[in-house]
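Changelog note: in this version the structure field was regenerated for every chain. One regenerated record is shown below for reference.
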Amino acid sequence: MIFTTEMIQLFAVVLAKDCEPVTEALLREGVMQFINITELEGEKPESLSEIKSEISLTAISDLRKRIEGFLYTGGVIPSVPRETDLNNRTAVNIESETARLDKMAGERDSIRERQRVLQQEILKLEDIRRQVELYGIGISDVTLPAKHSFISMQIGRLPASNVKQFEEGLRDMPSLNIAMGQEGDMAHHLLISMKRDKEQINKILTKAGWTKVELPAELRSVKKDVFKELSAKLQTLAEEQKKIEKKVHDLVKKEAKHLTKAWINLRVNELFLKIQANFKSSSRTVIFTGWLPSSKKERLTRKIKQVCEDRCYLEWNEAGSGGAIGDEVPVRFNNPKVLAPFQMLVSNFGIPRYGTIDPTPFVMPLYLAMFGLMFADVGQGLILAILGALGVYFLRNNEQKQGFYHLSWLVVWCGCSSIFFGALFGSFFGTGLFPPLWFDFHGIISGHSVHNSAINNVFDILSITIYFGISVIFLGLLFNWINLIREKKWVELFFDKGGILGGWIYGGGIYIASYLVAHSYKQFPPGKVLFLLAGLPSLLLFIKEPYHYFKHEAGHSDKKSSLLFALINFLMEWVVELLEIFSGYLSNTLSFMRVAGLGIAHVCLMISIFTLAEMTSGIYYVLILILGNIMVIGLEGLTAGVQALRLNYYEFFTKFFHGTGKLYTPISLSSSYK
């Protein structure tokens, strides 16, 4: 579990007639990450060609994505194919499916055009209603209810035969046209419009044969009725909008069964062609190669030979062996599901190189310890755990939101860490509801601790985080040494700033600092001890640059003076590296004081909230405590999570972790299709 999964490379040659069943077997097993062969020893590049297909991979992929878009419109999320779908794979009729989609698209577009028109009308009427509500209505010569109204209203009559023309002219204008009745061949209408459109409105009225009618006195105060009319019309339009939206969903749902089946078949064919895109063929054979976990070797060998009836040649090469094709071995994490949230944190930083340490099992306790020290409270931790559990419950079956699902589990773990450290410090929503199991954090910060403990003041709390930081940094150095030994980089193991000499200097610096503190900052260790702890490893570190020079560059230099310049360069490189070691390790160690700092800030914030609450009484007291705890959980919880992540990334990972690996992503039925 501490190292990434051991990988092995398969080089295979099968007969061309066995290409299809072999591809199906590879897809069914779903364990192989292919390498696209461009040239092989003993084969001329021109003698190898791509596997040709009747339908291109691009065409199938595009059609699958188009169907996917339709399904999402109807709220249907297709699930990944299963083995039964692979067994039922059929040829894809691109023309037929495209024609079907085109027909659906035409129906959908006409519905959406009506939606667009309705939305425009709704926006216009809402604009008028807002103005009516705020400013009132201006009617001809009547005094305006609101002096600065932007609304104009008038009543008029026009030939009934021109009504349709009149309504068409107003379609693109923000206006409300209310039919008031008809007298003979003349139609009476109430028109509400924006004053800013007066000029355009007048042109439309003139063209329609509009004649203005004086509003009777008893009808001059009609704001309430007009507002009611506007609201009724808006409600009618909104209901029609919902009906149209339902038509879109019904259109997709009617075809959902066929579309889902077509999508699955397209997906299987797409994966099929993706595998064959990595094949190379000669006149009678097909060649492919790729990586898979060593534990899958026997099963895949058996499956390939079974479908080929032993008509194949399989060659297996260990990672790093001379026969392996390519230098980059994919990395497969080897962690149990319980570590998935912490593996997500590692992956966000980078993928470890193949064969190096996977820090995931160590990130879990380190991250949770850092978080708990910064956010120690039983009550608030319980709230976090409950929120995380709710997220896990609602996202457990959502394949599209696995990132949020793992994040929810991370919140659950962080809540449990807060509960644990809250019990150690005796904190429950900022109160000492029960005695602490370790020491009274709140009592020390507030100055009234009564519990006997080895931790009695703020400096003792800071010391805890310093010792914790030293342990984390040494763990990172140890991992770096293990990685260098596995990669057989002996020079870097001894002479690098993250190697044995760098660790020697760091350990010596810790002893010197401890000695100085123990002697009240008045005395250093004896000179011989200082030399052994810091001087000797610093001098030995000087060897690195001359070694690299004489190994790689000395033979290429013809200048007599180059040795002098090289010596000056050695000194400069040595001085800079020493400065980096001393200042870097010091800042890395002191950086862990932020753990204590945020823990102290958390306590101070809770003290402030209780102080504010005690200045009130009754419901206000309770309200301040509730709002204060919500703020602390949101603000402090996020800050503690980010700072714990930062300390892992920049103080721990940088000592040994090189996120330059390539993630193992085999082609399988469950492969991501985004």
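Spot check on this record: The two ends are 29 Å apart (CA to CA). The first strand starts at residue 7 and ends at 15.
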